[in-house]
Design goal:
Strand order of the largest sheet: 9-10-11-12-16-15-14-13
Radius of gyration: 23 Å
Shape: globular
Helix content: under 10%
CATH superfamily of the largest domain: TolB, C-terminal domain
Distance between the termini: 50 Å
CATH class of the largest domain: Mainly Beta
Largest sheet: 8 strands, mixed
Mean pLDDT: 85
Number of strands: 33
């Protein structure tokens, strides 16, 4: 009878695969298919424009603000030429409240910044002068050392896998410039600023110090110049920022993709209603609310756009998707909102009983704590506002949960 069981199993798999329907799964799209069960990246969207909820002028010390990162509840930025300092900004008045120096390194053309749990990464890979830099790198700095004033810099040197011609191309005349990258658990991903094609190419790069080749994964037509990126890896949301050749800024949302196939998911462009603004950086902590900054741009005698910091609420565009992302895993604990989305359930392995846990918001405030005393335990977060929170369990790495 064993062959019959095998045949039945194969038939079940065929029927299961056959029942899947590929198509656009985003209800906000113009071509939403309610019968689709597999997102094939085909979603199209009506034109949309977003405005800043809040904007403030930044000091002259950061007139070339080129990257943003939210670290320990604070906003940090940097300039893109010579200056090796990081500036902590007040989100209320834009003033500089702290300066951290990346001692031991240099700034040829810093264009973006990102982080993981232990390190700050700086993209020293601006390449618009002639498109032929041979010293492209990402600088890795330990956070503890940076805060103490004694950072240990390491270089992740790289070249592009498909760049073979290093003949000087002239100013702003290359497809091998880069101003945006994101740092994941395993790799770094670069998004190029392609002056000629107005597209962006995605490259994968090792996180380890040393010399590497950035592997081309794909190219997408953004119809503009990409200048910044931010990523919520566990929720499969990437936001890119950039501007057109006429200095019309935009945000590109990329979400609901599988693995590294970023361009295989939803891709939605949002115009940003700030004319003649050279937007350079973007950051978020919850996937709904974003910070953007722009360089000072002046073209006498008419245009003079001061450097600014903006906040933008993209809940209308991402909340429907993020409300469906409810599984987060870490080591020996799996954590997810229950169907009613009123609490977080912790499924525990036997060796986690008795461990203490704390729930912390993105500003570092502890908003819940307790002891894991049962094999199935529930942590009530119904009183918490929407957002992303970190859950730390003794003996385990911090995890993130989402309250919708």
């Amino acid at each position: 009878m064993k062959p019959h069981y095998i045949l039945s199993a194969l038939l079940f798999l065929v029927l299961k695969v056959g029942a899947q329907v590929a198509g656009c799964t985003d209800p906000l799209s113009s071509n939403y298919n309610p019968n689709a069960t597999v997102n094939d990246g085909s979603c199209t969207y009506a034109n949309a424009s977003v405005s800043a909820d809040f904007s403030i002028d930044l000091p002259d010390a950061v007139d070339e603000t080129s990257g943003l990162v939210v670290w320990d509840g604070s906003i940090y930025t940097h300039n893109d030429d010579t200056d090796i300092n990081f500036y902590r900004l007040s989100a209320t008045n834009g003033e500089i409240t702290q300066i951290l120096s990346a001692t031991g390194t240099a700034n040829q053309d810093w264009e973006d910044i990102d982080q993981d749990d232990n390190y700050i990464y700086i993209g020293d890979f601006g390449n618009n002068v002639n498109g032929n830099r041979s010293n492209l790198r990402i600088i890795r700095l330990d956070k503890a050392g940076l805060l103490a004033g004694t950072p240990t810099p390491n270089n992740i040197n790289f070249s592009y896998s498909n760049q073979t011609n290093f003949t000087p191309a002239g100013n702003n005349n290359t497809d091998f410039d880069c101003e945006a990258f994101i740092v994941g658990n395993d790799y770094i991903y670069l998004f190029t600023k392609q002056w000629v094609s107005q597209e962006t190419s995605l490259y994968r790069l090792s996180k380890a110090p040393g010399t590497h080749t950035a592997e081309l994964l794909g190219t997408y037509d953004t119809n503009g110049l990409i200048t910044g990126a931010t990523w919520l890896e566990d929720q499969k949301v990437i936001a890119l920022c950039g501007y057109t050749t006429l200095l019309s800024p935009f945000i590109y949302l990329i979400y609901d993709f599988e693995g590294e196939d970023f361009f295989g998911g939803n891709k939605r462009r949002l115009s940003f209603s700030e004319g003649f603004t050279q937007v350079e950086a973007i950051a978020t902590t919850d996937g709904l609310h974003y910070y953007l900054s722009n360089e000072h741009f002046q073209q006498a005698p008419i245009i003079n756009t001061e450097q600014q910091l903006f906040t933008v609420d993209l809940s209308d565009y991402l909340q429907p998707y993020l409300s469906t992302v409810d599984v987060v895993a870490a080591d020996d604990i799996v954590m997810y909102p229950n169907p009613a989305r009123e609490n977080i359930r912790l499924d525990l392995q036997p060796n986690t009983v008795g461990r203490e846990y704390t729930i912390t918001d993105m500003a570092g405030k502890v908003v819940g704590s307790g002891t894991l005393a049962e094999v199935s335990n529930s942590v009530d977060i119904s009183a918490l506002s929407a957002g992303i929170y970190s859950v730390a369990v003794t003996g385990n790495n911090p995890m993130k949960l989402v309250k919708q």
